[in-house]
Design goal:
Elements (H helix, E strand, L loop, with lengths): L1 H14 L5 E4 L5 E4 L5 E5 L2 H21 L2 E5 L1 H10 L9 H13 L4 H12 L3 H8 L17 H15 L7 E5 L5 H10 L2 E6 L2 H13 L6 E5 L9 E7 L2 H4 L4 H11 E13 L8 H6 L9 H9 L4 E7 L1 H17 L1 H7 L2 H19 L4 E8 L29
Parallel strand pairs: 1-3, 5-6, 5-8, 6-7, 8-9
Antiparallel strand pairs: 1-2, 3-4, 9-11, 10-11
Length: 407
Protein backbone atom coordinates (compact mmCIF):
# COMPACT_ATOMS: atom_id res chain seq x y z
CA UNK A 1 0.00 0.00 0.00
CA UNK A 2 2.87 2.37 0.79
CA UNK A 3 4.42 1.61 -2.56
CA UNK A 4 1.21 2.53 -4.36
CA UNK A 5 1.10 5.88 -2.59
CA UNK A 6 4.78 6.47 -3.30
CA UNK A 7 4.14 5.73 -6.97
CA UNK A 8 1.41 8.37 -7.02
CA UNK A 9 3.71 10.87 -5.30
CA UNK A 10 6.54 10.16 -7.73
CA UNK A 11 4.17 10.60 -10.69
CA UNK A 12 3.13 13.96 -9.29
CA UNK A 13 6.76 15.02 -9.00
CA UNK A 14 7.47 13.87 -12.55
CA UNK A 15 4.58 16.02 -13.80
CA UNK A 16 5.75 19.10 -11.86
CA UNK A 17 9.50 18.58 -11.22
CA UNK A 18 9.95 21.83 -9.29
CA UNK A 19 7.45 20.71 -6.64
CA UNK A 20 8.78 19.70 -3.24
CA UNK A 21 6.54 17.89 -0.75
CA UNK A 22 6.35 14.99 1.69
CA UNK A 23 4.04 12.07 2.43
CA UNK A 24 3.80 10.86 6.03
CA UNK A 25 2.53 7.32 6.60
CA UNK A 26 0.60 5.88 9.53
CA UNK A 27 3.72 4.28 11.02
CA UNK A 28 5.72 7.52 11.03
CA UNK A 29 7.72 6.91 7.84
CA UNK A 30 8.09 10.05 5.71
CA UNK A 31 8.60 9.96 1.94
CA UNK A 32 10.15 13.31 0.99
CA UNK A 33 10.48 14.68 -2.53
CA UNK A 34 12.73 17.72 -2.94
CA UNK A 35 14.56 19.63 -0.25
CA UNK A 36 11.99 22.07 1.16
CA UNK A 37 8.52 20.48 1.22
CA UNK A 38 5.72 22.99 0.59
CA UNK A 39 3.23 20.61 2.16
CA UNK A 40 3.08 17.33 4.04
CA UNK A 41 0.27 14.89 3.22
CA UNK A 42 -0.33 12.68 6.26
CA UNK A 43 -2.23 9.39 6.36
CA UNK A 44 -3.36 8.68 9.92
CA UNK A 45 -4.23 5.05 9.22
CA UNK A 46 -4.21 2.37 6.53
CA UNK A 47 -7.95 2.76 5.95
CA UNK A 48 -7.42 6.28 4.61
CA UNK A 49 -4.72 5.03 2.26
CA UNK A 50 -6.99 2.23 1.05
CA UNK A 51 -9.81 4.71 0.42
CA UNK A 52 -7.57 6.94 -1.69
CA UNK A 53 -6.20 4.04 -3.72
CA UNK A 54 -9.64 2.48 -4.27
CA UNK A 55 -11.82 5.56 -4.75
CA UNK A 56 -9.60 8.45 -5.78
CA UNK A 57 -10.83 11.90 -4.81
CA UNK A 58 -13.99 10.50 -3.23
CA UNK A 59 -11.83 8.47 -0.85
CA UNK A 60 -9.49 11.40 -0.29
CA UNK A 61 -12.35 13.79 0.44
CA UNK A 62 -14.15 11.51 2.87
CA UNK A 63 -10.91 10.73 4.70
CA UNK A 64 -9.95 14.40 4.87
CA UNK A 65 -13.36 15.30 6.31
CA UNK A 66 -12.90 12.90 9.22
CA UNK A 67 -9.28 13.88 9.86
CA UNK A 68 -7.86 10.54 8.71
CA UNK A 69 -5.94 12.55 6.12
CA UNK A 70 -4.26 15.84 6.97
CA UNK A 71 -2.59 18.41 4.74
CA UNK A 72 -0.10 20.72 6.42
CA UNK A 73 1.05 23.50 4.12
CA UNK A 74 0.18 24.50 0.57
CA UNK A 75 -3.07 22.74 -0.40
CA UNK A 76 -3.08 24.55 -3.75
CA UNK A 77 0.15 22.81 -4.74
CA UNK A 78 -1.27 19.44 -3.72
CA UNK A 79 -4.29 19.90 -5.98
CA UNK A 80 -2.14 21.29 -8.78
CA UNK A 81 -0.18 18.04 -8.67
CA UNK A 82 -3.41 16.05 -8.59
CA UNK A 83 -4.72 17.78 -11.70
CA UNK A 84 -1.35 17.38 -13.41
CA UNK A 85 -1.50 13.58 -13.19
CA UNK A 86 -5.26 13.34 -13.73
CA UNK A 87 -5.82 12.00 -10.23
CA UNK A 88 -9.23 13.68 -10.00
CA UNK A 89 -10.33 11.32 -12.81
CA UNK A 90 -9.14 8.28 -10.86
CA UNK A 91 -11.47 5.30 -11.20
CA UNK A 92 -13.43 3.98 -8.22
CA UNK A 93 -14.08 0.55 -6.85
CA UNK A 94 -17.17 -1.25 -8.16
CA UNK A 95 -18.84 -0.97 -4.75
CA UNK A 96 -18.38 2.80 -4.72
CA UNK A 97 -19.52 3.14 -8.34
CA UNK A 98 -22.79 1.38 -7.49
CA UNK A 99 -23.25 3.51 -4.37
CA UNK A 100 -22.65 6.74 -6.27
CA UNK A 101 -24.90 5.71 -9.16
CA UNK A 102 -27.78 5.03 -6.77
CA UNK A 103 -27.25 8.35 -4.98
CA UNK A 104 -27.06 10.22 -8.29
CA UNK A 105 -30.33 8.69 -9.49
CA UNK A 106 -32.04 9.56 -6.21
CA UNK A 107 -30.79 13.16 -6.37
CA UNK A 108 -32.03 14.07 -9.85
CA UNK A 109 -33.30 17.65 -10.11
CA UNK A 110 -36.97 16.96 -10.56
CA UNK A 111 -39.27 19.62 -9.08
CA UNK A 112 -39.20 17.76 -5.77
CA UNK A 113 -35.56 16.69 -5.94
CA UNK A 114 -34.31 20.18 -6.80
CA UNK A 115 -35.83 21.62 -3.63
CA UNK A 116 -34.07 19.03 -1.49
CA UNK A 117 -30.77 19.46 -3.30
CA UNK A 118 -30.72 23.24 -2.98
CA UNK A 119 -31.72 23.10 0.68
CA UNK A 120 -28.81 20.69 1.30
CA UNK A 121 -26.26 23.33 0.29
CA UNK A 122 -27.89 26.70 0.86
CA UNK A 123 -30.13 26.35 3.90
CA UNK A 124 -27.32 25.95 6.43
CA UNK A 125 -27.68 29.51 7.73
CA UNK A 126 -27.20 32.94 6.16
CA UNK A 127 -24.65 33.93 8.80
CA UNK A 128 -22.36 31.11 7.66
CA UNK A 129 -22.32 32.45 4.11
CA UNK A 130 -21.97 36.06 5.22
CA UNK A 131 -18.81 35.10 7.09
CA UNK A 132 -16.93 34.23 3.91
CA UNK A 133 -18.91 35.88 1.09
CA UNK A 134 -18.84 39.30 2.71
CA UNK A 135 -21.49 42.05 2.61
CA UNK A 136 -22.46 41.54 -1.05
CA UNK A 137 -23.58 37.95 -0.31
CA UNK A 138 -22.63 37.09 -3.89
CA UNK A 139 -21.86 33.38 -4.24
CA UNK A 140 -20.68 33.47 -7.86
CA UNK A 141 -17.55 34.47 -9.74
CA UNK A 142 -16.55 38.11 -9.27
CA UNK A 143 -15.03 40.33 -11.95
CA UNK A 144 -11.51 41.73 -11.51
CA UNK A 145 -10.47 44.54 -13.84
CA UNK A 146 -7.35 44.53 -11.64
CA UNK A 147 -6.12 41.62 -9.52
CA UNK A 148 -5.76 43.87 -6.45
CA UNK A 149 -9.48 44.64 -6.23
CA UNK A 150 -11.17 43.78 -2.95
CA UNK A 151 -13.78 41.04 -3.01
CA UNK A 152 -16.55 43.59 -2.52
CA UNK A 153 -15.30 45.78 -5.36
CA UNK A 154 -14.98 42.78 -7.69
CA UNK A 155 -18.43 41.42 -6.86
CA UNK A 156 -19.99 44.82 -7.46
CA UNK A 157 -18.09 45.02 -10.76
CA UNK A 158 -19.54 41.61 -11.73
CA UNK A 159 -23.09 42.80 -11.07
CA UNK A 160 -22.42 45.91 -13.14
CA UNK A 161 -20.86 43.88 -15.97
CA UNK A 162 -23.94 41.64 -16.17
CA UNK A 163 -26.21 44.70 -16.12
CA UNK A 164 -24.26 46.28 -18.96
CA UNK A 165 -24.20 43.11 -21.02
CA UNK A 166 -27.98 42.90 -20.66
CA UNK A 167 -28.14 46.57 -21.72
CA UNK A 168 -30.52 47.31 -18.87
CA UNK A 169 -32.70 50.37 -19.29
CA UNK A 170 -35.12 52.17 -16.94
CA UNK A 171 -38.47 50.43 -17.09
CA UNK A 172 -37.08 47.03 -18.11
CA UNK A 173 -38.96 44.13 -16.55
CA UNK A 174 -36.45 41.40 -15.73
CA UNK A 175 -36.38 37.88 -14.34
CA UNK A 176 -33.48 36.21 -12.56
CA UNK A 177 -33.42 32.43 -12.35
CA UNK A 178 -31.57 31.28 -9.23
CA UNK A 179 -31.27 34.75 -7.70
CA UNK A 180 -29.47 33.78 -4.49
CA UNK A 181 -29.65 36.50 -1.85
CA UNK A 182 -30.98 39.05 -4.34
CA UNK A 183 -27.80 41.01 -5.04
CA UNK A 184 -28.23 41.42 -8.79
CA UNK A 185 -31.90 42.39 -8.61
CA UNK A 186 -31.09 45.01 -5.98
CA UNK A 187 -28.17 46.38 -8.01
CA UNK A 188 -30.30 46.56 -11.15
CA UNK A 189 -33.16 48.29 -9.34
CA UNK A 190 -30.89 50.82 -7.62
CA UNK A 191 -28.75 51.72 -10.64
CA UNK A 192 -31.01 51.08 -13.64
CA UNK A 193 -34.59 51.59 -12.44
CA UNK A 194 -35.86 48.16 -13.46
CA UNK A 195 -38.70 46.11 -12.07
CA UNK A 196 -38.37 42.38 -11.71
CA UNK A 197 -38.63 39.07 -9.94
CA UNK A 198 -36.08 36.52 -8.83
CA UNK A 199 -36.66 32.90 -7.91
CA UNK A 200 -34.72 30.56 -5.65
CA UNK A 201 -35.41 27.26 -3.91
CA UNK A 202 -33.66 28.33 -0.70
CA UNK A 203 -35.98 29.62 2.02
CA UNK A 204 -33.01 31.17 3.81
CA UNK A 205 -32.19 33.18 0.69
CA UNK A 206 -35.79 34.32 0.21
CA UNK A 207 -36.02 35.51 3.81
CA UNK A 208 -32.73 37.41 3.60
CA UNK A 209 -33.44 38.98 0.20
CA UNK A 210 -36.98 40.00 1.16
CA UNK A 211 -35.74 41.74 4.32
CA UNK A 212 -32.95 43.52 2.46
CA UNK A 213 -35.26 44.65 -0.36
CA UNK A 214 -37.72 46.05 2.19
CA UNK A 215 -34.94 47.78 4.14
CA UNK A 216 -33.88 49.54 0.93
CA UNK A 217 -37.44 50.54 0.05
CA UNK A 218 -37.45 48.54 -3.18
CA UNK A 219 -40.36 46.20 -2.41
CA UNK A 220 -42.65 47.91 -4.96
CA UNK A 221 -40.15 47.24 -7.76
CA UNK A 222 -38.52 43.89 -7.13
CA UNK A 223 -39.32 40.71 -5.24
CA UNK A 224 -37.82 37.29 -4.59
CA UNK A 225 -40.02 34.19 -4.58
CA UNK A 226 -39.53 30.67 -3.24
CA UNK A 227 -40.11 28.96 -6.54
CA UNK A 228 -38.51 26.62 -9.06
CA UNK A 229 -37.47 28.37 -12.28
CA UNK A 230 -39.78 25.98 -14.14
CA UNK A 231 -42.75 27.45 -12.26
CA UNK A 232 -42.05 31.09 -13.16
CA UNK A 233 -44.58 32.66 -15.52
CA UNK A 234 -44.87 35.86 -17.56
CA UNK A 235 -42.64 37.50 -20.15
CA UNK A 236 -39.66 39.74 -19.54
CA UNK A 237 -37.43 42.19 -21.39
CA UNK A 238 -34.30 40.61 -19.93
CA UNK A 239 -33.58 37.25 -18.26
CA UNK A 240 -30.45 36.48 -16.24
CA UNK A 241 -29.21 33.26 -14.69
CA UNK A 242 -26.11 33.85 -12.58
CA UNK A 243 -24.62 30.68 -11.11
CA UNK A 244 -27.65 28.40 -11.46
CA UNK A 245 -27.08 26.37 -14.61
CA UNK A 246 -24.38 24.20 -12.98
CA UNK A 247 -26.98 23.14 -10.39
CA UNK A 248 -29.77 21.96 -12.70
CA UNK A 249 -28.08 18.77 -13.93
CA UNK A 250 -27.18 17.87 -17.51
CA UNK A 251 -30.51 16.18 -18.08
CA UNK A 252 -32.35 19.44 -17.37
CA UNK A 253 -30.12 21.97 -19.19
CA UNK A 254 -32.06 21.83 -22.51
CA UNK A 255 -35.33 22.35 -20.65
CA UNK A 256 -33.86 25.30 -18.77
CA UNK A 257 -33.07 27.08 -22.03
CA UNK A 258 -36.52 26.23 -23.34
CA UNK A 259 -37.95 27.95 -20.27
CA UNK A 260 -35.73 31.00 -20.79
CA UNK A 261 -37.01 31.22 -24.37
CA UNK A 262 -40.60 31.18 -23.10
CA UNK A 263 -39.86 33.93 -20.56
CA UNK A 264 -38.07 36.29 -22.95
CA UNK A 265 -40.03 38.76 -25.02
CA UNK A 266 -39.24 38.86 -28.76
CA UNK A 267 -35.87 40.61 -29.24
CA UNK A 268 -35.25 40.37 -25.49
CA UNK A 269 -31.77 39.73 -24.12
CA UNK A 270 -30.67 36.84 -21.92
CA UNK A 271 -27.44 36.02 -20.09
CA UNK A 272 -26.29 32.77 -18.52
CA UNK A 273 -23.31 32.95 -16.15
CA UNK A 274 -22.19 29.44 -15.20
CA UNK A 275 -19.29 27.19 -14.38
CA UNK A 276 -18.63 25.06 -17.44
CA UNK A 277 -16.20 22.68 -19.10
CA UNK A 278 -14.78 22.42 -22.59
CA UNK A 279 -16.24 18.91 -22.92
CA UNK A 280 -18.90 16.94 -21.04
CA UNK A 281 -17.55 15.26 -17.91
CA UNK A 282 -19.21 13.16 -15.26
CA UNK A 283 -20.13 14.86 -12.01
CA UNK A 284 -17.40 14.43 -9.41
CA UNK A 285 -18.67 11.82 -6.89
CA UNK A 286 -17.47 13.69 -3.80
CA UNK A 287 -19.02 16.97 -4.92
CA UNK A 288 -22.23 15.21 -5.95
CA UNK A 289 -22.57 13.57 -2.57
CA UNK A 290 -21.46 16.31 -0.19
CA UNK A 291 -21.54 19.72 -1.90
CA UNK A 292 -23.92 20.04 -4.86
CA UNK A 293 -26.26 17.03 -5.04
CA UNK A 294 -27.73 16.59 -8.50
CA UNK A 295 -25.49 19.23 -10.07
CA UNK A 296 -23.25 18.73 -13.08
CA UNK A 297 -21.10 21.24 -14.91
CA UNK A 298 -22.29 21.69 -18.52
CA UNK A 299 -19.89 21.89 -21.47
CA UNK A 300 -19.86 25.08 -23.53
CA UNK A 301 -21.32 23.20 -26.51
CA UNK A 302 -24.44 22.36 -24.48
CA UNK A 303 -24.91 26.01 -23.56
CA UNK A 304 -24.63 27.08 -27.19
CA UNK A 305 -26.99 24.31 -28.29
CA UNK A 306 -29.46 25.34 -25.61
CA UNK A 307 -29.58 28.83 -27.08
CA UNK A 308 -29.66 27.88 -30.74
CA UNK A 309 -31.98 24.87 -30.49
CA UNK A 310 -34.64 27.18 -29.07
CA UNK A 311 -34.47 29.74 -31.85
CA UNK A 312 -32.35 32.22 -29.95
CA UNK A 313 -29.13 33.83 -31.17
CA UNK A 314 -25.71 33.78 -29.49
CA UNK A 315 -24.29 37.30 -29.27
CA UNK A 316 -21.17 36.90 -27.15
CA UNK A 317 -19.29 34.36 -25.02
CA UNK A 318 -16.70 35.24 -22.39
CA UNK A 319 -14.55 32.94 -20.26
CA UNK A 320 -13.75 34.36 -16.80
CA UNK A 321 -11.81 31.31 -15.60
CA UNK A 322 -9.07 33.10 -13.68
CA UNK A 323 -11.51 35.59 -12.20
CA UNK A 324 -13.06 32.67 -10.34
CA UNK A 325 -9.69 31.62 -8.96
CA UNK A 326 -9.23 35.12 -7.53
CA UNK A 327 -12.77 35.06 -6.14
CA UNK A 328 -12.12 31.76 -4.41
CA UNK A 329 -8.86 33.01 -2.92
CA UNK A 330 -10.83 35.82 -1.26
CA UNK A 331 -13.46 33.37 0.00
CA UNK A 332 -10.73 31.09 1.37
CA UNK A 333 -9.10 34.02 3.18
CA UNK A 334 -12.44 34.95 4.79
CA UNK A 335 -13.20 31.32 5.59
CA UNK A 336 -9.87 30.86 7.38
CA UNK A 337 -10.50 33.99 9.43
CA UNK A 338 -13.80 32.49 10.63
CA UNK A 339 -12.79 28.87 11.21
CA UNK A 340 -13.17 29.05 14.99
CA UNK A 341 -16.74 30.35 14.63
CA UNK A 342 -17.59 27.74 11.98
CA UNK A 343 -16.21 24.88 14.06
CA UNK A 344 -18.10 26.03 17.15
CA UNK A 345 -21.36 26.58 15.25
CA UNK A 346 -21.29 23.39 13.18
CA UNK A 347 -18.53 20.82 13.73
CA UNK A 348 -15.07 19.91 12.52
CA UNK A 349 -16.33 17.61 9.75
CA UNK A 350 -18.45 20.43 8.29
CA UNK A 351 -15.50 22.82 8.54
CA UNK A 352 -13.12 20.44 6.79
CA UNK A 353 -15.69 19.64 4.09
CA UNK A 354 -16.11 23.30 3.13
CA UNK A 355 -12.40 24.01 3.42
CA UNK A 356 -11.64 21.20 1.00
CA UNK A 357 -14.41 22.32 -1.36
CA UNK A 358 -13.11 25.89 -1.58
CA UNK A 359 -9.45 24.89 -1.92
CA UNK A 360 -9.94 22.32 -4.67
CA UNK A 361 -12.29 24.63 -6.57
CA UNK A 362 -9.68 27.39 -6.63
CA UNK A 363 -7.12 24.98 -8.04
CA UNK A 364 -9.58 23.58 -10.58
CA UNK A 365 -9.90 26.95 -12.32
CA UNK A 366 -6.13 27.45 -12.51
CA UNK A 367 -4.98 23.90 -13.23
CA UNK A 368 -8.09 21.83 -13.92
CA UNK A 369 -10.83 21.92 -16.52
CA UNK A 370 -13.29 24.29 -14.84
CA UNK A 371 -14.26 27.41 -16.76
CA UNK A 372 -16.63 30.29 -16.06
CA UNK A 373 -18.73 31.18 -19.08
CA UNK A 374 -20.95 34.18 -19.63
CA UNK A 375 -23.16 33.49 -22.65
CA UNK A 376 -25.14 36.45 -23.99
CA UNK A 377 -28.00 35.86 -26.41
CA UNK A 378 -31.17 37.37 -27.84
CA UNK A 379 -34.63 35.93 -28.48
CA UNK A 380 -34.56 36.21 -32.24
CA UNK A 381 -32.64 38.80 -34.20
CA UNK A 382 -32.21 41.98 -32.22
CA UNK A 383 -30.40 45.27 -32.68
CA UNK A 384 -30.45 46.05 -28.96
CA UNK A 385 -26.84 44.87 -28.59
CA UNK A 386 -24.25 47.33 -30.01
CA UNK A 387 -21.72 46.47 -32.70
CA UNK A 388 -18.80 46.32 -30.23
CA UNK A 389 -18.18 45.64 -26.55
CA UNK A 390 -16.78 49.12 -25.93
CA UNK A 391 -19.87 50.23 -23.99
CA UNK A 392 -19.11 47.61 -21.34
CA UNK A 393 -15.88 49.34 -20.34
CA UNK A 394 -16.42 53.06 -20.98
CA UNK A 395 -16.86 53.97 -17.32
CA UNK A 396 -15.71 52.46 -14.03
CA UNK A 397 -18.11 50.21 -12.17
CA UNK A 398 -19.89 51.79 -9.19
CA UNK A 399 -17.92 51.82 -5.97
CA UNK A 400 -19.19 49.16 -3.57
CA UNK A 401 -21.13 50.48 -0.59
CA UNK A 402 -22.19 47.77 1.86
CA UNK A 403 -25.76 47.80 3.06
CA UNK A 404 -26.70 47.04 6.67
CA UNK A 405 -27.38 43.35 7.13
CA UNK A 406 -31.03 42.94 8.19
CA UNK A 407 -31.60 41.43 11.62
Amino acid sequence: MKNALKDIANAMHAAVPEASFAVRFWDGEVHTIGTAPAFTLSFRDKAAASAVIADGFLGFGESYMTGAIEVDGDMQLLFRLGFAVGYTDHSMSLKSKIRILILHILKQNTLTGARKNIAHHYDVGNEFYRRFLGPTMAYTCAYYDRPDRTLEEAQTAKLELVARKLRLQPGDHIAELGCGWGGFLIHAAQHYGITGVGVTLSKEQVDYATQRIAALGLQDRIRVELKDYRELEGTYDKVASIGMMEHVGIRFVPGCFKKIKALLKPRGIGLVHTIGNDVLRNADPWFDRYIFPGGQVPPLSMLIDGVCDNGMNVVDVENLRLHYELTLFHWIENFRANEDWIRATYDDVFLRMYRLYLEVCASSFRYGDNRLFQVLFTNGLSDLVPLTRSDLYTAPAPVASPEPVPA
